């Protein structure tokens, strides 16, 4: 009877190492975008075209907190009623907010909230264009 001589295996099995590396790579790819919250950015300026009056209803908020619908001064208590009436006349119009830059951000958000409570969901902001003429 012949005896079998066993030799040592000198190769490393890398299959499990590759599997673990791929799993870690996938975990990092999924979690990396979630770690970016709260980064300060400087937003770019947009070059916008001038709006026509027929494009929508313009709500203006002046520095002394007066509200205008198009060019008409509206009492604070009658704002939603008058806006709803004008919107019913043409429900396809959007509402554009034009607020003075001195108005605090919270007051503009409150105005948007009042507009949305009327049932208008197409709300835009009017900004000054930096386009050179």
Q: What does this protein look like?
A:
Helix content is 32%, strand content 16%. With 133 residues, it is of the alpha/beta class. It has a domain at 53-125: Nucleotidyltransferase, domain 5. α2 (79-89) crosses α3 (105-118). Residues 37-44 have low confidence and may be disordered.
Task: Write the SSE topology.
Layout (H helix, E strand, L loop, with lengths): L14 H17 L24 E6 L5 E3 L2 E3 L4 H11 L4 E6 L5 H14 L4 E3 L8
Helix pairs in contact: 2-3
List keywords for this structure.
133 residues, alpha/beta, Nucleotidyltransferase, domain 5, five-stranded mixed beta sheet, 3 helices, 5 strands
Q: What is the helix tally?
A: 3
Q: What's the end-to-end separation, in Å?
A: 102 Å
Number of E strands: 5
Q: What order do the SSEs take from the amino end to the carboxyl end, as H and E?
A: HEEEHEHE
Q: Quick check: average pLDDT?
A: 78
What proportion of the residues is helical, as a percent range?
A: 25-40%
Instruction: Tell me the strand order in the biggest sheet.
Output: 3-2-1-4-5
- Described by the principal axes of the CA atoms, the overall outline is rod-shaped
Describe the structure in brief:
This protein is of the alpha/beta class and 133 residues long. The protein has helices spanning 15-31, 79-89, 105-118; strands at 56-61, 67-69, 72-74, 94-99, 123-125.
